[in-house]
Structures
1.
Amino acid sequence: MFKEAKKIIDKSNKIYISAHVNPDGDAIGSTLAIYFGLKKLGKNVHVVMPSYSNVFSFLPGVGDCVNSIEDEEYDLLIALDSSDNTRLAISEEEYNNARKVIMLDHHQISNPYGDFRYIDDSKSSASEIAYLFIKALKIEIDKDMATLLYAGIMTDTGSFNYNNTSSDTHRIVADLIDYGAETVNVCKRLNDTIKEAKLKLIAKTIDNMEVFYNGKMRYSFIPYEEIKSLGIDDEDAEGMTNYLRSVEGTEVAVYVRGKSDGTNKVSMRSGGNVDISKIAISFGGGGHPRAAGYTMKDSEDIEKQKLIKVVGEML
Ligand code: AMP
Ligand code: MN
Ligand code: MN
């Protein structure tokens, strides 16, 4: 499965690993687990992650991440959890400076890139693929790597609740527990702890909620000024969509947040009957049937009306 990738790794020394911008637990867990693994092979390896939510700072290796790729040329880029190379947390120039690129991803809709690709949308997460990749390279998984992979799988499966969770996912997680994954701490830090400002953001999300189609669609927009006034940064302002989706009868939940760069980021969740990846793609984004997103190109009020119309057609 990873034979060609192994050949590329064998020939590479200077290696960078990256994932999509605004990294989630899966992007962080998968990149750092491979980082620790390749260090064991004696590679000169770095993870490029210019910004991340500080809820992840407890994870091993997060402090080792670098902001950019300073080398003019390097042997290999390993890209994880990013269906499109333009969404990677590196610049186009940094991408082009790689002699080889390995792409490992689990998104359904994808613009494949790189010299070696492993894309499997039946896998729960990039971290599940990273586990298989590390195993194929015959690298021993230690406690830190197990904790990282566990964090990635746990977050992308909604604590093993989403339908991307397979029996293989559970078998892999069982292995990770045997390797010493700190499951209780990961759960405590990522599922069970929020800042007070985040609690206020939840209140604001509910306050700003608009309801359409007899409760089948819920929409909440929080302008950047409101997010800023709560003292929340871009990375910490996400994660509100599930609250909207969890309301009885909701088919499509939409949370839109203003970002510091002036754009509005749309985050959608589906109850299961509407494939929202199609909607996101039609607006220039992407994702999965039940979790998808995009960045608004027009003003929020215009984009909102367009979206309401499209959702109405799909319901
Ligand atoms: P989010 O709502 O931000 O958690 O995103 C849910 C999923 O939608 C992610 O896992 C991505 O697969 C996808 N996604 C979000 N934003 C974009 C985008 N701008 N372009 C492509 N895919 C996106
Ligand atoms: Mn991700
Ligand atoms: Mn993922």
Note: The first helix runs from residue 3 to 11.
2.
Amino acid sequence: MFAETKSLNEECGVFGIWNHPDASRVTYFGLHSLQHRGQEGAGIVSGDHLALRGYRGLGLIAEVFKDSQNLTNLTGSRAIGHVRYATSGNNSIQNIQPFLFHFYDMSVGVCHNGNIINAKQLRKELEEDGAIFHSSSDTEVLMHLIRRSSKTTFEEQLKESLCKIKGGFTYLLLTKDCLYGAVDPNSLRPIAIGQMKNGSYVLASETCAIDTVGAKFVRNVNAGEYVVISEQGIRVESYTKDTMISIAAMEYVYFARPDSDIAGVNVHTARKRSGKHLALECPCPQADIVIGVPNSSLSGASGYAEQSGLPYEMGLVKNQYIARTFIQPTQELREQGVRMKLSAVKGVVEGKNVVMVDDSIVRGTTSLRIVKLLKEAGANQVHVRIASPPLLFPSFYGIDISTTSELIAANKSLEEICQYIGADSLGFLSEAGLIDAIGLSFDAPYKGLCMECFNGDYSAGLYDYEKDFFANLTPIQLAHLEKRRKALV
Ligand code: AMP
């Protein structure tokens, strides 16, 4: 089911800089702080008013540029870079970004974060019209649309092309004259603008990268907007007025770094508030201590402890040198990854009734393994509390929430999940609790959040995925959609 989804989803990090003597090196540092968004490949395209050049490779940014000469070669005062997360079968070098296109009249570097949900349809139309694709990545689609546009300037061609693309996306594009950054009409995937002391502008998927390179946050690129930076300065324009803010809730729940702000809300603070709401919604009076699963749920666990008045303890230790478990393409390797990644602190959990807070359950692998670890370390009871609602639906907007068949909550009831992971009790935060905890206040559904994975409300539509989605709903998904439909009536 949803085989297509699995090969197309991407959750990545992008960084761009304009007018800096060490543009590619600053981009390297920026990408370093976005490494949590993708570890499978990385690359940088840099240049000046004469030419663009690029280098990319598989692995972490530090591995790709292990030979520092590869970075030194990337001269020029402007650059864009990308760290890539990709699912299995799609991690060949051809798909590593930024792509660098050389045409007879210009060169363009382009990188992309997110997922285009009408890519299949657009590709078909473009191929029928004679386009030849070089990679299996969606990113090329934008470039083909731009080159086929009848508009006369690159900016107009870009605007026209962005209007044809549906889904969650951010793009960075570099020509020898301009750096562009564009955000989808729902603001599903973020871009923030920063400015360095020397006046250089930077663009980044998360504000943590802006801080890392010593820049000051200027503003976000909002839904349906694009930013153009050139020798003439900086402009933010709209390519469409047909927008509705719907920021991916999973950015707050799991993806973003705790020191990043999204739409003015600090990620750590949102997670901590989620933990507090969780403690109110799913208390655990018999517990002695609260622990979190490092790193993404530590903020949530501290909120749970604070709200419930229980001691917040370090019950699990993470080996910081292992990449995220999801990066492993098979279930067997993922399980091995969890074992290498986490250890229980025996002296803390032995004989205790433990509340173990995690940010989310996808397949159930992590919770199952951790409950076992904690019990093997002598924990008396393990009560699992999840600081987000059950992940019932796949994501089509660029977060690897996999296929429906792998989503445990789309296939098992709460009691069955609890039994599967071997916990003494299990509780999830409600949808309303998460919306409240994140605390956006936009005049839009869910106060400006995209809750697609929790409630099946796909704010940017389904396009290529629609037929498959409705044909393959599980009874649990159907019941949830029905509940939402009734609530709307
Ligand atoms: P699982 O072990 O399959 O249940 O995955 C749950 C764990 O993966 C949690 O500890 C989360 O922190 C993390 N996680 C949640 N969503 C994602 C995602 N889209 N990609 C990678 N990891 C995730």
Note: The mean pLDDT is 92.
3.
Amino acid sequence: MNRILLAEDEERIASFIEKGLRAEGFRCETVADGAAAVELARTGEFDLMVLDIGLPGMDGFTVLRRLRSERVDLPIIILTARDAVEDTVAGLSGGADDYMRKPFAFDELMARIRLRLASAASVESVVLRVADLALDLRTRRATVDGRTVELTTREFALLETFLRHPDEVLTRQQLLSRVWEFDFDPGSNVVDVYVRYLRTKLGADRFETVRGAGYRLRSAPH
Ligand code: CA
């Protein structure tokens, strides 16, 4: 089920949107100020945010800039009561995916939400991300902090396995079976050798050695 985060301080509008979303089968959580919007958007538990610009404390533009500077790539649709075209343009260049001008028809908002969710889903299926590390499954290229890194076939398969299990300890045996398709331990250090290659190419710190167990891809610096 899709979870929508709604940041809107006007109760009447918030409840109108909430009711509509629930009727369409979405789950919806509403916050009424910018700081709470940032906090919840960071949790990664939402699929999309509808963000009002005029919020108390921190306005919607600030919320948007803060999230994008933290690389939170949650799709965001801005709601604005302001007529000024510059505001809308500023919103889109600040990293918003779309915008709606108030007042609006719920059906139009719903159509935009569905469109954004569909395009987010198709992007997600080809790019795996953990922190500043991304792997495009089509081009088989990794990027670290915007820098492109070429990988060999095995390095690619090993990195894909790590990215699908961030923060989990993967044993040498699990890696051997998933990446090399060995269901026995051939008694070689091939896993350690390839983890070393990934460390050299992508940064040593992110691949943690867990003594006596295996390796873990860290999703955050320690
Ligand atoms: Ca408002």
Note: The chain has a mean pLDDT of 89.
